[in-house]
Design goal:
- The complex is a heterodimer of chains A (115) and B (111).
- Chain A has strands at residues 5-7, 10-13, 19-24, 31-38, 42-50, 53-56, 65-71, 74-79, 88-95, 105-106, 110-114.
- Chain A has 115 residues and is an all-beta fold.
- In chain A, strands 2, 4, 5, 6, 9, 10 and 11 form a 7-stranded mixed β-sheet that branches. Chain A has a 4-stranded antiparallel β-sheet with strand order 1-3-8-7, with no helix packed on it.
- Chain B is an all-beta fold and 111 residues long.
- Chain B is built from no helices and 11 strands.
- Classes of the chains: A mainly beta (115), B mainly beta (111).
- The A-B interface holds A 4, 33, 35, 42-43, 45, 48, 55-56, 91, 93, 98-101, 103-109 and B 3, 30-31, 33, 40-45, 48, 50, 88, 90, 92-94, 96-104.
């Protein structure tokens, strides 16, 4: 299996621009997670999908952030408009069943820099 | 917060020595997992220990769990330079439906 695939790996954009991050989970996995990692705040869960349905989006910072999962093999995380404080590494992870007992498999991450 | 906290924040040892990292958490858990993150990469699952287990082994890894103290430790024996990475604990709470990751321990193994 190719593992969790994320694109792009690096993104540099200017403040105010729209940014779209993409994720393809491991085939057959039912849960998908978006995380943000920074030096200051560590690894933060942004949103969690189970069977393509958002279960917990309490970690989404504000209305500028939105996430979709139109089907079992694709998810996007969109930031509009982007701000310099959004600069971070964004990880997508998937798990077979989801929930607290399941192992999560992480993608390589997207390093976002907002100038 | 349900987030775990690792201790120490950073650890530097010589190759061949053992490395011990600790994790403390605040709420009741169903299980606790340890992950490794190499620089510039995503996290990789290492081992899971359930709340009714006290110790678990996997290769050079040994994990202990003390639910009365709400703490866990990860021991890496006979460390190698390739073990250089950040190590995170993640807790699955009894009342939660996802994992909560700690702040990580940065391990450096000097060849």
């Amino acid at each position: 299996d190719a593992g969790v695939i994320q694109s792009p790996r690096h993104e540099v954009t200017e403040m105010g621009q729209e940014v779209t991050l993409r994720c393809k989970p491991i085939s057959g996995h039912n849960s998908l997670f978006w995380y943000r990692q920074t030096m200051m705040r560590g690894l933060e869960l942004l949103i969690y999908f189970n069977n393509n349905v958002p279960i917990d989006d309490s970690g989404m910072p504000e209305d500028r952030f939105s996430a979709k999962m139109p089907n079992a093999s694709f998810s996007t995380l969109k930031i509009q408009p982007s701000e310099p404080r959004d600069s971070a590494v964004y990880f997508c992870a998937s798990s077979l069943y989801g929930g607290r007992t399941d192992t999560q498999y992480f993608g390589p991450g997207t390093r976002l820099t907002v100038l | 917060s349900q987030q775990g906290e690792e201790d120490p924040q950073a650890l530097s040892i010589q190759e061949g020595e053992n490395a011990t990292m600790n994790c403390s958490y605040k709420t009741s858990i169903n299980n606790l997992q340890w992950y490794r993150q190499n620089s510039g990469r995503g996290l990789v699952h290492l081992i899971l220990i359930r709340s009714n287990e006290r110790e678990k082994h996997s290769g050079r890894l040994r994990v202990t769990l003390d639910t009365s103290k709400k703490s866990s430790s990860l021991l890496i024996t006979a460390s190698r330079a390739a073990d250089t990475a950040s190590y995170f604990c993640a807790t699955g709470g009894t009342g939660a439906n996802n994992l909560f990751f700690g702040t990580g321990t940065r391990l450096t193994v000097i060849p």
